[in-house]
Amino acid sequence: MDARLLDILVCPICKASLDYRKTAAELVCKPCKLAFPIRDDIPVMLEEEARRLAADES
Prior knowledge:
Belongs to the UPF0434 family. This is UPF0434 protein GGD90_003165. The protein has about 60 residues and is mainly beta. The chain contains 1 helix and 5 strands, in the order H-E-E-E-E-E. The protein has one domain (about 5-50): N-terminal domain of TfIIb, CATH 2.20.25. Strands 1, 2, 3, 4 and 5 form a 5-stranded antiparallel sheet that branches.
């Protein structure tokens, strides 16, 4: 992921900053408890594509 892109991306739902999890290839929004996938180096910022975080993942 491009570091400049990570600096400007925010959660599409609450506009909070996102945490990049390289090993899982996803961007995590802690307030919404959602993980947005990254496919072929492109973040998929759609709520219906996001994965709900388990209680122990936040």
